[in-house]
């Protein structure tokens, strides 16, 4: 999206992608991966999805759309091109970006560099004692394929958020026997209820019929300051918990640890604060309530044996397969690897609001840290988020880059001096 915005503003840009074709980072994931949020939230800039598309669409449909998008938007897209390093020459004000372009090393010298690798870093696998002795397959959620021959096998899935739910659901559909290990609580919003009670005025068929547009919806949604958003969302989630009380009761009756955020503000705030900690329910919750997906909650992993996982309460679970749905390293970690630990240290935490809730230490920032605005590293920008956020904020990131190209100053309120001077 940022590439498309830059292209339309006449800013020469190269998009680097490690995998061969646009969309490949979706294609290589498990077959049942689909959006959990409705189609109206997910349009790309300039070319909306066709009106016959389903509300929730599968990942390969999206992958093909992205490939088409690159072509018709005439983007300068380098597939099979991994960035191997990036160093900034402060004197010249130019980056030296090294690229492994299909085996050939190429050096690029851009003035501006946008890190758009997602909200998270690399797969995170905890270092459990005994893991090396486990005889069966062990895989992180990011590499889970879903086409393995695991029918009838006991699969221990460590973690209890979106990836863990999706994968337990997928394993169950394939006739495997998943058990989810939940260490601490998870927020669960039911996708269709979220659509009905939260998104409908902005992102729905009804909204379109009443004259709402994607651009207007984005502007209205983004115009609510985050501090206020947190307060405004509480009554909606309180009503949601009430309306769906039987659903939530079935879940907690089997021991599932449920939360609605520390202040009851629900999904969007969890996403902004932590980028994690929730499940947008598309069916796995009922399978947990019914026992089709096994659940061990309020426990961590003590150690791993040759064919078992030992939990912190002493339970030993026989296991043929282990899936680590244990989340991801930080974006700051990716930045450090691409540039240097010094640059990552100078830029500091990325994402989060400084809300002083779990995983989001203060001080209060007001906006997402380091996202879509100048960072403490001249010439460096960080971009990512849900499709909705990327669609909206890509406009402003692209304009700031365009302004640098034209020699215009675009100071940002509250930003460090060094950041606003580039
Ligand atoms: N279809 C879609 O749209 C999908 C979207 N996503 C998105 O990707 C993002 C990341 O989600 P996800 O991959 O689920 O990652 P999360 O970071 O949300 O979840 C990680 C899970 O692993 C647990 N965990 C981590 N370390 C340990 C440990 N040492 N022992 C036990 N448990 C551990 C965490 O427990 P604890 O909370 O106690 O730390 C948590 O339950 C989210 O934004 C999500 O919405 C993911 C999948 C599908
Ligand atoms: O960005 C938003 O609007 C959210 O409420 C969170 C969210 C919507 N769709 C997602 C897909 C992946 C991760 C978070 C979200």
Automatic annotation (TrEMBL):
SUPFAM superfamilies for the chain: FAD/NAD(P)-binding domain (SSF51905)
Broad class of enzyme this protein falls into: oxidoreductase
Alphabetical keyword list: FAD, Flavoprotein, Monooxygenase, Oxidoreductase
Domain of life: Eukaryota
Gene3D superfamilies: FAD/NAD(P)-binding domain (3.50.50.60)
Catalytically driven reaction(s): indole-3-pyruvate + NADPH + O2 + H(+) = (indol-3-yl)acetate + CO2 + NADP(+) + H2O
A Pfam family it matches: FMO-like
Needed cofactors: FAD
Enzyme nomenclature, EC number: 1.-.-.-
GO MF annotations in UniProt: flavin adenine dinucleotide binding; indole-3-pyruvate monooxygenase activity; N,N-dimethylaniline monooxygenase activity; NADP binding
InterPro entries linked: Auxin_biosynth/cation_transpt, FAD/NAD-bd_sf, Flavin_mOase-like
Family per record: Belongs to the FMO family.
Protein's UniProt name: Flavin-containing monooxygenase
Organism: Ostreobium quekettii
Classification lineage: Eukaryota, Viridiplantae, Chlorophyta, core chlorophytes, Ulvophyceae
């Amino acid at each position: 999206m940022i590439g498309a915005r830059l292209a339309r503003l006449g800013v020469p840009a190269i998009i680097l992608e490690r995998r061969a074709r646009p969309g490949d980072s979706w294609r290589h994931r498990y077959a049942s991966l689909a959006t959990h949020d409705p189609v109206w939230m997910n349009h790309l800039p300039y070319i909306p999805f066709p009106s016959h598309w389903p509300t929730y669409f599968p990942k390969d449909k999206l992958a093909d759309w992205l490939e088409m998008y690159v072509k018709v938007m005439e983007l300068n897209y380098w597939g099979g091109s991994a960035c191997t390093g990036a160093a900034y020459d402060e004197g010249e004000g130019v980056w030296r970006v090294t690229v492994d372009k299909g085996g050939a090393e190429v050096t690029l010298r851009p003035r501006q560099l946008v890190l758009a690798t997602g909200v998270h870093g690399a797969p995170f696998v905890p270092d459990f004692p005994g893991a090396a002795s486990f005889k069966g397959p062990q895989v992180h959620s990011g590499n889970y394929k879903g086409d393995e021959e695991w029918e009838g096998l006991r699969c221990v899935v460590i973690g209890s958020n979106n990836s863990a739910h999706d994968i337990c659901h997928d394993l169950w559909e394939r006739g495997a026997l998943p058990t989810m290990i939940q260490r601490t609580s998870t927020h669960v919003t039911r996708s269709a209820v979220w659509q009905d009670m939260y998104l409908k005025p902005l992102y729905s068929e009804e909204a379109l019929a009443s004259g709402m547009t994607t651009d207007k919806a984005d502007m209205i949604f983004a115009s609510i300051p985050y501090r206020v958003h947190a307060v405004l969302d509480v009554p909606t989630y309180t009503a949601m918990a009430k309306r769906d009380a039987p659903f939530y009761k079935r879940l907690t009756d089997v021991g599932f640890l449920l939360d609605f955020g520390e202040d009851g503000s629900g999904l969007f705030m969890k996403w902004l604060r932590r980028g994690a900690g929730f499940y947008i329910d598309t069916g796995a919750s009922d399978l947990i309530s019914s026992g089709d997906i096994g659940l061990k909650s309020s426990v961590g992993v003590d150690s791993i044996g040759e064919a078992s996982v030992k939990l912190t309460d002493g339970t030993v679970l026989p296991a043929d397969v282990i899936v680590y749905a244990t989340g991801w390293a930080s974006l700051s970690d990716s930045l450090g690897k691409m540039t240097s630990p010094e640059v990552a240290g100078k830029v500091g935490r990325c994402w989060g609001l400084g809300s002083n809730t779990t995983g989001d230490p203060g001080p209060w920032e007001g906006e997402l840290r380091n996202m879509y605005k100048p960072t403490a590293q001249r010439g460096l920008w960080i971009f990512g988020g849900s499709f909705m956020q990327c669609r909206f904020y890509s406009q402003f990131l692209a304009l700031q880059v365009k302004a640098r190209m034209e020699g215009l100053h675009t100071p940002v309120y509250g930003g460090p001096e060094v950041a606003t001077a580039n």
